[in-house]
Design goal:
Blueprint lengths: L1 E8 L5 E9 L5 E7 L30 E5 L1 H8 L5 E4 L19 E5 L4 H14 L5 E5 L10 H7 L4 H10 L1 E3 L14 H6 L2 H5 L6 E2 L4 E4 L11 E4 L4 E4 L5 E3 H9 L3 H12 L6
Parallel strand pairs: 4-5, 4-6, 6-7
Antiparallel strand pairs: 1-2, 2-3, 7-8, 9-10, 10-11, 11-12, 12-13
Helix pairs in contact: 1-3, 7-8
């Protein structure tokens, strides 16, 4: 197993947290968090953590575009080539808060999503949040190349040097325009999701361990692992697995875990949590 520690620092260079990534030989990964003292767990919500690489921004001229990747690993691959980059650390299920993006105010950015649906939606939400504060926003278009890949994979698989990667970016970026997010066909509307805590529901099925103020983790039931990578976010009652990348909300979890339909899951919630939503 390969263990990599990514130091998450603010724009003053002060260590805020450590993201520990564990990559197994079979391709699975687990992400753990440590605070600045090296203790496992976080006291700061993921959405409030700085973008990975924020300490380097002061050295980048204001007119040079900054690439934003999903995760430190992809960001590191570009930084090692000398390409100004930052990485989100929230996972694809969340995006940073507005104040985290202040280090990029009045700059141009290039959003580089992972080449999958959840990665594109992650960057789309980030673009919507950032558009009022940025000079210009571009986005990398993968087309059909390397499905599921990220910037790290491109650098590794194509053995790109800095000149080649810059040329590739120039040929694959477009001005970013927000696209409509796919509507979740769920009888649980926003109000109902707020009324029902995903932690309360999931704890009936899985053993949860608190991992910060608003997050809990559990061993994922949908792939083999020994270290918990299935993460539940109390802030928006969602879940995301850093191993198999499954994600969703309360109803999605019940459907998948129990092989239920929406009607069956909703019936369970009505009976056990006094949920009054209807399909």
């Amino acid at each position: 197993m390969k263990i990599t520690n990514y130091l998450v620092k603010d724009n003053r260079g002060i260590l805020v947290a450590i993201q520990q990534r564990r990559d197994s030989e079979d391709g699975r990964k687990v992400v753990l968090w440590q605070n600045a003292q090296g203790d496992y767990g976080l006291s700061t919500p993921l959405k409030e953590l700085p973008l990975y690489g924020s300490e380097h921004i002061v050295c980048v001229a204001q007119d040079i575009p900054i690439i934003i990747t999903e995760g430190p690993k992809a960001c590191d691959a570009l930084l090692k080539l000398g390409i100004p980059s930052l990485g989100t650390v929230t996972g694809a299920a969340l995006i940073p808060e507005t104040k985290v993006l202040e280090v990029l105010s009045h700059r141009s950015i290039i959003l580089w999503p992972d080449n999958d649906t959840i990665g594109r939606e992650h960057m789309n939400r980030l673009g919507i949040l950032a558009q009022e504060h940025m000079t210009d926003i571009w986005i990398v278009q993968w087309h059909t190349l390397l499905k599921g890949a990220d910037a790290f994979d491109l650098v590794l698989d194509l053995k790109c040097n800095v000149r080649q990667i810059r040329r590739w970016i120039n040929h694959h970026i477009l001005h970013w325009q927000p696209f409509p997010m796919a509507e979740k066909k769920s009888p649980l509307g926003r109000k109902t999701q707020m009324d029902i805590s995903i932690v309360d529901v999931v704890s009936k099925f899985l053993t949860l361990r608190k991992n910060g103020n608003t997050t809990w983790v559990a061993i994922c039931p949908w792939h083999l692992e020994t270290t918990a990578s299935l993460t539940f976010f109390a802030e928006n009652d969602s879940y995301y697995c850093f191993g198999c990348r499954c994600s969703g909300y309360v109803l999605d979890f019940l459907n998948r875990y129990n092989n239920w339909t929406d009607v069956q899951s909703l019936g369970y919630l009505k009976e056990n949590f006094n949920c009054n939503a209807s399909s």
